[in-house]
Amino acid sequence: MNTIPSTFDVIVVGGGLAGLSSAIHLSRQQLNVLVIEKNSYPKHKVCGEYISNEVLPYFNYLGIDVFALGAKKIDKFQLSTTKNKLISTSLPLGGFGISRFCLDHALEQKAIDSDVSLIQDTVDDVRFNNEQFTVVTKNQKQLKSKFVIGAYGKRSNLDVKLNRQFIKTKSPYLAVKTHVKGSFPNDMVALHNFEGGYCGVSKVEGDKINLCYITNFESFKAFKNIEEFQEKVIFKNTYLKQVFKTTIPLFEQPLTISQISFDHKKPIENHIIMCGDTATLIHPLCGNGMSMAIRSAQIASTLIVKFFNSEITSRDALEKQYLREWNTTFKSRLKVGRIVANLFNRPHLSEFLMKGLQWFPGILPQIIKRTHGKLMQIE
């Protein structure tokens, strides 16, 4: 077994999409990188599992062929309201469906092949002093690096340690995800609204259908279990009822996650460069959080490489550039995401909006464009 050194150029806290993508990128540029991930691979995660094609050039750069992994090409979109009004359109850029179980595992293998060091552990603390980080883990490791990337997901005890503002407010949202087997178009992602939430439906590799919904916990807790909630709330949307009732569950139990926060987060905290859900979380109604995680990893990694190549001369300059690029790339789409989510959380207003979209079908693709970015440029 190889001995893990104690000092690295970059330590990545969290080995999901953002963390592994950044680690592969940095290692390809001959930087010494460590990823600390608390879970073992492969693992299912609560996630919509649809990704915009904007990330394909970057995946090609990293050496990941999602279609060789079985990803489904998706270019159609369906949207329904709580009153079962349905509208369909094409996706301007298109995307693909692939499970986190499959994609994270492929990224892990690519990271290992790229000489990234990986350890399974939990980070208890990150300290910054004299231009150096000290990362302290649960297994009492003390590791040092020039940079730390935070890519540990939606919320963590580390957020409490860092005194991040969003963690102080209890979030009302709960998400549930499962895979099922049955009939659903390979080339479509659907978003069906129900009272208090919405559910995404799309195919992933192996002809599995991913069902992932988010709801307000106040709505959910009025029922004794997930099954009763689905029967009495979700199935009022006839499109969702059709999918759930005519398919076969592949999980023994659905996966759940609570305390999902859409509050503002700072992309840099205590000099840690935050990526993916650690930096921000777009409303699932806009269905593009996975590609945003990958895009943020590319931004952070490119700037860190420039720092080590002396193209960026100080940490301060790097952090300011990251904030500029992060805001340029994500601020507008996050704003659109919040507006769209707020509108569809009001049933009467959403019904009116659907009529408008049916009268002017060209509007919906324009909204989608504002949340799905452009093809990533690789430097």
Overview of the structural elements:
With about 375 residues, the protein is of the alpha/beta class. The protein has a domain at about 5-50 and about 55-60 and about 100-170 and about 260-350: FAD/NAD(P)-binding domain, CATH 3.50.50. The chain has eleven helices and 17 strands. Strands 3, 4, 5, 10, 11, 12, 13, 14 and 15 form a nine-stranded mixed beta sheet that branches. Strands 1, 2, 6, 7, 8, 9, 16 and 17 form an eight-stranded mixed beta sheet that branches. Strand 16 and strand 17 form a beta hairpin. Helix 1 packs parallel to helix 3 and helix 1 (about 15-30) runs parallel beside helix 8 (about 290-310). The longest helix has 30 residues, at about 315-345.
Helix content class: 25-40%
Contiguous uncertain segments of 5+ residues: none
Strand content: 25-35%
Task: Look at the structure and give the mean pLDDT.
Answer: 88
Helix count equals 11
- Annotated CATH topology of the domain at 7-48 and 55-62 and 98-169 and 261-348: FAD/NAD(P)-binding domain
Question: Structural class from helices and strands?
Answer: alpha/beta
User: What is the string of SSEs from the N terminus onward?
Assistant: EHEEHEEHEEEEHEEEEHHHEEEEHHHH
Quickly give the CATH architecture of the domain at 7-48 and 55-62 and 98-169 and 261-348: 3-Layer(bba) Sandwich
Largest sheet: 9 strands, mixed
CATH top-level class of the domain at 7-48 and 55-62 and 98-169 and 261-348: Alpha Beta
> What's the β-strand tally?
17
